[in-house]
Amino acid sequence: MIDEEVALKAERRAFLETVRSLEPEDWDAPTLCTGWLVRDVVSHINLNVSLMPLQAVVALVRARGDLATFMDQTAKAGRTRSRVDQLRLLEQVADSARIPPTTQRSDGAIDVFVHHHDIALTLGRTVPTDPARLRWLADGLPQASRAIGSAKMVADLRLIATDIDWHYGTGPEVRGPASALLIAACGRAALDEQLDGPGLAVLQGRR
């Protein structure tokens, strides 16, 4: 059985290493998150240590309870921080297993895994992982938090990984590498060309 704290930290450290390797100009590159620059994605991940509970409540009120607006505003608020400060915060995140209230460690790992791809796929980078962590991440999709949104995306579908021993659910099949299934289930189309099966159109229609 996987050690969830260790696995979460491993995903966060992998993200840290990619961000450390970026050139200064890369921080202002667009990502797969509409309207978000690389620095906004980093800022979003850093909310795990930079956003205190009271601040989160105030920000959610300002967003009138809309989670998407809350996420967008809090991420972009980090644009005032320097790259040095953002990296310092990201180092704290990588050494922490802290997660938002009411969420699971798999939620935190899925979040950083997907956002890692949001940056990497637009900058021509790769995202390292291992089969055990991929299985754990994939197992978390059906019960992930509302903020991730994958639970609705994969409902009544059968997902089958072709690169690791993993499958889930019943219904129209979607087949492909585990990473592509994870990215697709979290609303990204960037790796859809690696997927096939009658359930793919259903999944795409839910975005």
What is the straight-line distance between the termini? 33 Å
Low-confidence segments, ≥5 residues, pLDDT <50?
none
The radius of gyration over CA amounts to 17 Å
Largest β-sheet summary: 3 strands, mixed
> Portion of residues in helices?
40-55%
Order of helices and strands: HHHHHHHHEEEHH
Quote the beta fraction. under 5%
| Structural class determined from secondary elements | mainly alpha
- Please state the overall shape, judged from the principal axes of the Cα atoms: globular
Count of beta strands: 3
What's the helix count? 10
Strand order in space, largest sheet? 2-1-3
What is the overall pLDDT average? 93
Describe the structure.
- The chain is mainly alpha-helical.
- It is built from ten helices and three strands.
- It has helices at 4-20, 38-50, 53-62, 67-76, 83-94, 105-123, 131-140, 150-154, 178-185, 199-205, and strands at 158-161, 167-168, 173-176.
- β1 and β2 (167-168) form a beta hairpin.
- The longest helix is centred in the middle third of the chain and has 19 residues, at 105-123.
- The chain is globular and about 45 Å long.
- The two termini are 33 Å apart.
